[in-house]
Write a structure and sequence with these properties.
The complex is a heterodimer of chains A (306) and B (338).
Chain A lengths: L1 H9 L1 H7 L2 H18 L1 H4 L40 H37 L1 H16 L2 H23 L1 H29 L2 H8 L4 H9 L4 H24 L11 H9 L8 H28 L7
Helix pairs in contact in A: 2-13, 3-5, 3-13, 5-6, 5-8, 5-11, 6-8, 7-8, 8-11, 9-10, 11-12, 11-13, 12-13
Chain B lengths: L6 E14 L4 E16 L4 E5 L6 H8 L7 E6 L2 E2 L5 H8 L2 E4 L13 H11 L5 H14 L16 H13 L5 E5 L7 H19 L1 E6 L2 H7 L2 E6 L2 E7 H6 L4 H8 L49 E5 L2 E4 L20
Parallel strand pairs in B: 3-8, 3-9, 6-7, 7-8
Antiparallel strand pairs in B: 1-2, 1-4, 4-5, 9-10, 10-12, 11-12
Helix pairs in contact in B: 3-4, 3-5, 4-5, 5-6
Classes of the chains: A mainly alpha (306), B alpha/beta (338).
Chain lengths: 306, 338
């Protein structure tokens, strides 16, 4: 373990990272946001899921620095009287969980299909890649609207709120797997030609072991870069679906449903309910994307910086 | 022939289909290896030489079943390797290994040297952890690398060192046959000799047969016992190394030998300059495949296929210039039903 750490400290990636201020800032921001999100019960001033804390009388209180704001609610409260800061922290946790799980699902499906298509080639390759084309030509919004309508009719709106998280993960995960499959397939095709793969075949390894132990580790750089971009995309997709009312319910809001919930109150003057979650979402997605940009440049051997 | 040779290749043929047209219909095929036969005894080194594209690498890879042949037989220790049951096929892979040309592509860049050399042992489930480690260290030291190199990655080594790692990897299963596909052509001349000497020393030490594929006649001469010259998928001449270099029979062999650079600018010699390019292996010339470029072309050459004739002990040639020797054919096993 310490050996690995030592090696990482000497690696070119770490060297590039130290010299890139944007990467350091976005990495630090992300770490901070993740710590906040996952220690939400410890650091959030209130528990927004606990109806005992919610008082409808204290709804739409403005942030502390505005007239009418109180020290109890730093960023004000939403339409239901929940502390906005606490709700945002909890909401960010849901957004991040959905984003990461959806990307994990995409990655599992996409990597398996990409490896098989690239390694075996031929008809199998043709079949999976056409399947990917078909999948990409469906808008994920269309699929989500359709599936959620069917699901809500089938299990009822109340039960739907409980299965909203896995539903969003599956919809976003299924919609985007072709990105992974294509990326993995392209790198497998490049790696497959190299002689170390033939050397492994001569020693008598089976196709499985060659694919997973020899080819896949050499395809990790593009997968890593793609993953960061996909996490940002998935968080955005989740926010979009929730904003359209197809995602997380108002009782367990994600950042997207918070933005949506506040949208109705913008013209009554309570702009903060929409604005603060929106800013947090932008910061989160921007940090992930900037880190992804850095990784893409740092892991691309063709781009050397001075 | 007293006993069965280690390796007998008989009428090995490999055609690659060329797909063209709208529906990928197979119209033509590349005659990569077109009916080659040879034998190799234990501990012998056979040099396979020819221009690029003549099928020497395809032949080597087919022997290791990296490529399935179109037809023909390869018998290793008397058994046809293409007809082995899967379990036995795996076991047999232990005895045949390959060394590749490009020392930068043939080692997995994500694995340490220890893992790279250990992998063959893992596949065949040999030894426990400590025993494997010992064998890896052993193999590395026989190729002249140090134990501390074990934890390093391939990109930390030079080309010659990488080729040594490749050799250690090929040797660790104690194979009976190693196919060396242009093992030194990617290396500096100064390092080439080191690696060749190492191969030769190890061959004597451990006792394995070697098929050395190269386009460099100097390299072949240095360590081979027997040489086979390939042209457009066929072996056109095959002889013990001394005989081939002293009295080359085939016009193609002669022109190849005359092209070997001699490091003496004052030495006068006769060059045989070939005209034209190697014809396409999709449409090989009729008759003798060498006739469009042959300086000693006769009328018969583009009409009739020349026969392979044995002109001296162990020296066979496929050319219409030679008509006296007996026609050579690989001794096929008698089919069981006759």
């Amino acid at each position: 373990m310490t050996d690995r750490w030592q090696r990482f400290k000497k690696s070119a990636l770490f060297h590039d990272f130290k010299g890139d201020k944007v990467a350091i800032v976005s990495f630090a921001t992300l770490v901070l946001l993740f710590i906040c999100a996952f220690s939400a019960p410890l650091i959030a001033p209130y528990n927004p899921y606990d109806s005992a804390n919610i008082d409808i009388m204290s709804s739409e209180i403005p942030p502390v620095w505005m007239a009418g704001g109180t020290n109890d609610y730093l960023l004000g409260t939403d339409a239901q009287g929940r502390d906005l800061l606490s709700t945002m922290i909890y909401g960010m946790r849901i957004s991040i969980i959905i984003g990461i799980c959806a990307v994990a699902l995409q990655a599992v499906i996409g990597i398996i299909i990409g490896l098989i298509a690239g390694y075996y080639g031929g008809k199998l390759d043709g079949f999976f890649m056409r399947l990917a084309d078909v999948q990409l030509s469906f808008s994920y919004l269309m699929v989500a609207i359709f599936v959620s309508a069917v699901l809500q009719a089938a299990v009822g709106v109340g039960r739907f709120a409980e299965i909203a998280v896995p539903f969003l993960i599956i919809v976003i995960g299924l919609a985007q797997w072709p990105q992974y499959a294509r990326t993995v397939r392209a790198s497998v095709l490049a790696e497959k030609k190299k002689e170390y793969v033939e050397a492994a075949r001569v020693t008598g390894f089976g196709a499985h072991r060659i694919m997973w132990r020899h080819i896949l580790p050499n395809c990790m750089s593009p997968i890593l870069v793609l993953s960061t971009i996909q996490v940002a995309n998935a968080v955005m997709s989740e926010a979009a679906l929730s904003f359209l009312g197809l995602g997380m319910p108002v009782t367990r809001p994600s950042l997207g449903s918070l933005i949506n919930a506040g949208f109705e109150y913008i013209f009554s003057g309570s702009w903060w309910i929409t604005a603060f979650p929106g800013v947090l979402l932008v910061i989160l997605v921007l940090a992930v994307n900037l880190l992804g940009d850095f990784l893409r440049d740092a892991l691309n051997p063709k781009l050397y910086k001075g | 022939m007293s006993e069965a040779p280690l390796l007998a290749v008989e009428h090995l043929v490999k055609y690659f289909p060329v797909r063209s047209g709208l529906f990928g219909k197979q119209r033509e095929r590349v005659h990569a290896v077109d009916d080659i036969s040879f034998t190799l005894g234990e501990n012998e080194t056979l040099g396979l030489v020819g221009e690029s594209g003549c099928g020497k690498s395809t032949a080597g890879r087919t022997l290791l079943r990296l490529i399935e042949p179109t037809s023909g037989e390869v018998r290793f220790k008397g058994k046809n390797i293409f007809a082995l049951p899967p379990g036995e096929g795996r076991r047999q892979r232990r005895e045949m290994q390959i060394i590749f040309q490009d020392p930068f592509g043939s080692l997995n860049p994500r694995l340490t040297v220890e893992r790279i050399v250990e992998e063959p042992l893992l596949t065949h489930k040999i030894g426990d952890r400590t025993e494997r480690r010992e064998r890896v260290a052993d193999a590395l030291s026989t190729v002249g690398l140090l134990p501390e190199h074990m934890t390093r990655f391939p990109h930390e080594f030079s080309g010659g060192q990488r080729q040594r790692i490749m050799i250690a990897r090929a040797l660790i299963l104690r194979p009976k046959l190693i196919v060396a596909d242009e093992p030194v052509s990617a290396l500096d001349v100064s390092v080439q000799a080191q690696v060749l000497n190492l191969l030769n020393r190890l061959r004597r030490e451990f006792g394995f047969a070697c098929i050395l594929i190269s386009h460099d006649l100097g390299v072949i001469r240095y360590i081979s016992h027997h040489v086979a010259v390939m042209y457009l998928g066929q072996i056109v001449e095959s002889a013990p190394v001394a005989a081939l270099y002293a009295t080359p029979l085939h016009p193609y062999t002669r022109s190849l030998l005359s092209a070997v650079p001699i490091p003496d600018p004052r030495k006068k010699r006769q060059r045989i300059i070939l005209t034209g390019d190697v014809p396409s292996p999709i449409h090989p010339p009729s008759g003798c495949r060498f006739h469009p470029r042959c300086p000693e072309r006769m009328d018969i050459c583009d009409k009739e296929d020349p026969a392979m004739r044995l002109e001296a002990e162990g020296h066979r040639v496929m050319c219409h210039l030679y008509t006296t020797g007996p026609v050579w054919a690989p001794d096929l096993p008698t089919p069981p039903n006759t």
